[in-house]
User: Which sequence fits this backbone?
């Protein structure tokens, strides 16, 4: 698999670390145990389109949001997250 | 079987270059260009191997990678490679080949008695015998079965060969250099695209090299060689012979293995044995060809029963006659053409047997001219012979296959069958497209592409030379166009007219008149018979996946290239359904067996991952240190003095710390520079305890929790300024902590103004510990006040050490008065040696991980073996570090029902009377060694304590706090240890911490 990092360009997936399900929003630190329980343990296992976090750990170290098809592994979009969102190569 | 070298011919061999080799110790001669199979066949060797379960004699079936039977071990000693297909192994001078799975010898095999009792090893044998109520029988019979059923044995010695891994990018990858592949390559090459043409053969060309037709009025083999040379001359084309593309992965990533030196008698030292290629292709042309399928008849595993095309290919390509009385059998025109072409090379062809009553007249007259007897409207029902084929029994059959007359015996030494050609759709299937069955033609075709590939030639049912050349050119143009290149229409080569084949009968197996006694082998490599398939059906294993697993059909090293379709068609017949409805199993990589060494490449032994060295590494090595791996690092375990045991060495080192001063290399700790106006708030959120209140110039021990409330990491963070901290982590978690912090700042709290930098490698860190540490430190610092007032407990000072900018923090892991000294990494050795030099009169000693561990166990400090991913802060007696004044990661989950309560295993200390406490031992109540009892906990760390003069340990123990004072047993039945221990508080030494506050 290859991922096109918005900063570094197309690279082998071996340079990236998987960072989990990007559809899960982390609750506030003072949120209820139930909300945290849901965020930590409840996961869908979708067949098809899915959003994931990946870090370009052996490159720019940016965290990326990757839209990937779990069936075909086809990647439809890669975007920087957080402060850097919207920046990078287009 | 009585193979012999023909007086002339052989497009692949060079008769001027004879080679000698041995098979089972006997010496033979072959020619350059031979395979082990063709050379053995030419030498008249018929039996090559013994079969997997029944030890039946087996010969050569095919001429290529699909070979089910002729597996040999090539090479000797550490270089012995088992299960090599003799049909693809290139001969070289002094090659040694050995037959497999026979005892005591290939011709006389005691184990072949199994063959008299086929039901013993019938379908489902393992499941029925060993997985049911008689499961215990496995232990009794395992040894016998492992010896009886098997293939070649791998060498137990380390692989002395070198392998490489390489990456390749191209616009168009063409897999297979037969007629279609070569034609595709030329079309793509002319467009200027970067083209890779990979072919598994010794010489690109595939079946073209054994083709009798003329192309552009020259011999096909000559045309092929000229074509390959022309392609290789293109600067944008890379021709890769001996390269098997064995895997098709997502996004057009393919894997291939190139055999670099296997075919050479002298292996140049600078070359790897094999090279593993990762190929990323924009577009792929799959020109993988087709595999001829056998007709299954009674007695079909006798040496001498071969595929029709293989008999022709051995004659045309290697100049070898498989026999002198070859009988061809099949229900399609291709068998006739093969038979006539074989006869034309000088091989004695006795007869053609075809179930069709009226074969095409032109074929009949050509066969007659070649002197071949014709048996139309007949079928071979049995192959006879004891150790090899001596004859075949044929019967007249009707159009629907019923026997209509008496059995007639024909003399034969080879029975060559053909049920037509099955497209090689392995890579297509790996790429996610299920094959589709074409009922009319009786073949599987590739499914709709999901990756960027297209097929060319026989692999998608386009048979015939002219059609393959045209189809290849079209595929090559299409691939290049899709990759963004401009293509043109080059003229196709001229070939003489091919005849249109007449309607075939799809004939895959023939029932034997002696039905119950018949031995029809479907999967020869795994000894799966037709009756096994029937049994599977009768017992309800009717889906193809069940059939495969119940009978092991298609699960051998050939992955059923010549047996899957026959097995499927039998099951379809038993179910009364069409083959298309029964389906096919999924093909998975590798397409052909691949050496694990090639997949590992150089990532083997200590190269399996990078090894990290601290700045003081060279000093440790030069001064008696025994180094041990700690995560990615190498760290000193102890520094031996002459004659010392490990225990004596670490006790001496630990004693130095307790009594005078010791230094330890702690450079491996993770170090993260945290800066920004929100750094205090950030640390408050990631640590369970408060960091915003930490004064500048002070350090604090902190705990990090995971989201789920389990302990993640611990370490000290030092406040260097209002907006800057130096965070330290454990050695093992340096990278995970950094990654987690980066994740939080990027995705959860992008509003926090904090920047992070890993500075682990920037600093050399030295722990200076012991009652005389302050005295020593004062001798090496330039401008730092290290008095108790100037540098109080947990104080941090920046300044100069041995003339270099550095830091000193007063921290203690050992419980003694102690400091951590940080100097720039490149001055690590200088600082280390200066400390030892200036501390000589104080009785200084360097200390390693064993002493470090002993000192921390004496203090009851936790480390990685207690932070094991299951423990909470409360389990380790650190509940007081969970702040109640603020929120932090993991807080919400830390009081979940499962993480609290009396049943939790908590940290305790253990003592033993005069005996070492085995690390990892389980804690039980029974005094009886070997007692089977529920474990109450386990030992996490052990040591001999010089301070307490006794053996101590830390342990995690159920309801441990209430167990202080009780007697338990540390049970380690694996190492035969059972030690009485007393439970106590884990703080063995100086529990009130008075020694570090001096």
Assistant:
């Amino acid at each position: 698999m290859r991922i096109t990092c918005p900063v570094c360009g197309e690279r082998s997936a071996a340079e990236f670390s998987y960072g989990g399900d990007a559809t899960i929003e982390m609750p506030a630190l003072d949120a209820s145990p139930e909300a945290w329980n849901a965020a930590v343990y409840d996961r869908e296992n979708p067949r098809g389109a899915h959003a994931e976090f990946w870090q370009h750990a052996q490159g720019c170290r940016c965290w990326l949001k990757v839209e990937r098809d779990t069936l075909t592994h086809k990647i439809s979009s890669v975007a920087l997250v957080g402060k850097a969102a919207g920046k990078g190569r287009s | 079987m009585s193979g012999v070298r023909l007086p002339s011919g052989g497009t692949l061999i060079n008769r001027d270059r004879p080679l000698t080799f041995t098979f089972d110790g006997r010496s033979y001669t072959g020619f350059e260009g031979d395979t082990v199979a063709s050379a053995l066949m030419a030498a008249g060797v018929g039996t090559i191997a013994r079969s997997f379960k029944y030890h039946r004699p087996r010969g050569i079936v095919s001429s290529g990678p699909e070979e089910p039977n002729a597996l040999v071990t090539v090479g000797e000693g550490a270089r012995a490679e088992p299960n090599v297909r003799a049909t693809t192994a290139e001969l070289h001078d002094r090659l040694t080949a050995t037959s497999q799975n026979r005892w005591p010898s290939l011709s006389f095999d005691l184990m072949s008695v199994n063959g008299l009792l086929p039901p013993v090893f019938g379908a489902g044998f393992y499941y029925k015998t060993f997985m049911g109520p008689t499961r215990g029988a496995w232990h009794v019979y395992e040894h016998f079965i492992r010896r009886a059923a098997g293939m070649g044995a791998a060498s137990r010695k380390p692989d002395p060969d070198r392998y490489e891994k390489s990456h390749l990018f191209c616009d168009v990858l063409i897999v297979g250099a037969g007629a279609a592949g070569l034609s595709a390559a030329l079309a793509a090459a002319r467009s200027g695209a970067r083209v890779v043409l990979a072919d598994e053969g010794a010489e690109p060309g595939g079946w073209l090299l054994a083709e009798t037709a003329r192309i552009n009025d020259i011999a096909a083999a000559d045309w092929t060689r000229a074509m390959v040379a022309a392609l290789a001359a293109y600067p944008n084309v890379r021709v890769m012979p001996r390269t098997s593309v064995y895997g098709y992965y997502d996004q057009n990533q393919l894997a291939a293995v190139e055999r670099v030196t296997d075919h050479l008698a002298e292996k140049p030292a600078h070359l790897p044995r094999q090279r593993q290629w990762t190929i990323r292709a924009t577009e792929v042309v799959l020109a993988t060809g087709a595999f001829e399928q056998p007709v299954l008849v009674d007695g079909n595993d006798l040496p001498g029963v071969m595929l029709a095309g293989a008999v022709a290919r051995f004659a045309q390509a290697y100049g070898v006659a498989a026999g002198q009385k070859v009988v061809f059998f099949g229900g399609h025109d291709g068998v006739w053409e093969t038979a006539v072409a074989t006869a034309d090379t000088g091989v004695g062809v006795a007869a053609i047997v075809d179930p069709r009553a009226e074969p095409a007249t032109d074929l009949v007259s050509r066969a007659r001219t070649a002197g071949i007897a014709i048996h139309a409207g007949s079928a071979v029902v049995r192959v006879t012979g004891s150790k090899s084929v001596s004859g075949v029994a044929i019967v007249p059959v009707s159009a629907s296959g019923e026997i209509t007359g008496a059995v007639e015996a024909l003399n034969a030494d080879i029975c060559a069958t053909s049920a037509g050609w099955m497209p090689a759709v392995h890579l297509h299937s790996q790429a996610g497209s299920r094959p589709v069955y074409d009922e009319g033609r009786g073949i599987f075709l590739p499914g709709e592409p999901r990756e960027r590939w297209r097929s060319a030639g026989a692999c998608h049912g386009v048979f015939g030379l002219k059609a393959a050349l045209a189809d290849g050119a079209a595929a090559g143009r299409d691939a290049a166009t899709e990759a963004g290149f401009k293509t043109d229409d080059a003229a196709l080569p001229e070939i003489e007219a091919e005849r249109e084949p007449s309607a075939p009968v799809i004939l895959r197996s023939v029932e034997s008149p002696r039905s119950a006694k018949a031995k029809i082998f479907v999967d020869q490599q795994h000894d799966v018979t037709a009756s096994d398939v029937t049994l599977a059906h009768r017992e309800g294993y009717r889906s193809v996946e069940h059939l495969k697993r119940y009978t092991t059909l298609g699960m051998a090293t050939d992955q059923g290239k010549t047996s899957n379709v026959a097995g499927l068609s039998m099951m379809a017949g038993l179910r009364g359904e069409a083959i298309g409805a029964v389906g096919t199993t999924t093909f998975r990589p590798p397409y052909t067996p691949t050496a694990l060494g090639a997949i590992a490449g150089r990532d083997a032994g200590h190269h399996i991952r990078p090894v990290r060295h601290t700045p003081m590494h060279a000093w440790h090595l030069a001064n008696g240190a025994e180094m041990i791996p700690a995560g990615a690092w190498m760290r000193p375990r102890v520094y031996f003095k002459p004659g010392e045991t490990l225990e004596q060495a670490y006790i001496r080192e630990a004693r130095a710390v307790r009594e005078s001063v010791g230094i330890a290399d702690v450079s491996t700790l993770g170090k993260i520079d945290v800066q920004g106006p929100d750094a205090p708030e950030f640390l408050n959120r990631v640590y369970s305890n408060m960091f915003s209140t930490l004064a500048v110039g002070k350090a604090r021990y902190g705990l990090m929790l995971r989201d789920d409330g389990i302990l993640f990491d611990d370490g000290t963070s030092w406040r260097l300024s209002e907006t800057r901290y130096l965070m330290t982590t454990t050695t093992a978690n340096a990278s995970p902590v950094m990654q987690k912090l980066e994740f939080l700042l990027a995705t959860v709290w992008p509003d926090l103004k904090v920047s992070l930098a890993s500075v682990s490698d920037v600093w050399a860190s030295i722990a200076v510990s012991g009652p005389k540490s302050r005295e020593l430190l004062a001798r090496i610092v330039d401008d730092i006040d290290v008095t108790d007032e100037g540098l109080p407990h947990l104080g941090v000072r920046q300044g100069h050490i041995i003339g270099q900018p550095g830091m000193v923090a007063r921290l203690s892991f050992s419980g003694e008065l102690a400091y951590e000294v940080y100097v720039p990494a490149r001055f690590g050795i200088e600082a280390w040696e200066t400390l030892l030099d200036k501390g000589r009169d104080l009785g200084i000693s360097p200390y390693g991980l064993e002493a470090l561990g002993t000192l921390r166990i004496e203090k009851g400090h936790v480390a990685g073996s207690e932070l094991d991913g299951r423990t909470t802060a409360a389990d380790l007696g650190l509940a007081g570090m969970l702040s109640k004044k603020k929120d932090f990661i993991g807080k919400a989950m830390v009081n979940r029902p499962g993480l609290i309560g009396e049943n939790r295993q908590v940290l305790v200390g253990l003592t033993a009377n005069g005996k070492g406490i085995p690390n990892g031992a389980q804690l039980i109540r029974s005094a009886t060694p070997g007692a089977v009892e529920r474990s109450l906990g386990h030992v996490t760390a052990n040591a001999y304590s010089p301070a307490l003069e006794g053996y101590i340990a830390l342990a995690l123990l159920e309801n441990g706090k209430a167990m202080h004072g009780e007697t338990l047993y540390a049970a380690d039945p694996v190492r035969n240890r059972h030690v009485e221990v007393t439970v106590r508080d884990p703080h063995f030494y100086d529990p009130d911490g008075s020694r570090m506050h001096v």
Q: What stands out?
A: Residues 465-482 of chain B form the longest helix (18 residues). The mean pLDDT of chain B is 93. Residues 4-116 of chain B form a domain with the Ubiquitin-like (UB roll) fold (CATH 3.10.20.440). Chain B has six domains: 4-116, 163-290+423-482, 294-419, 612-668+762-861, 670-759+875-891, 901-998.
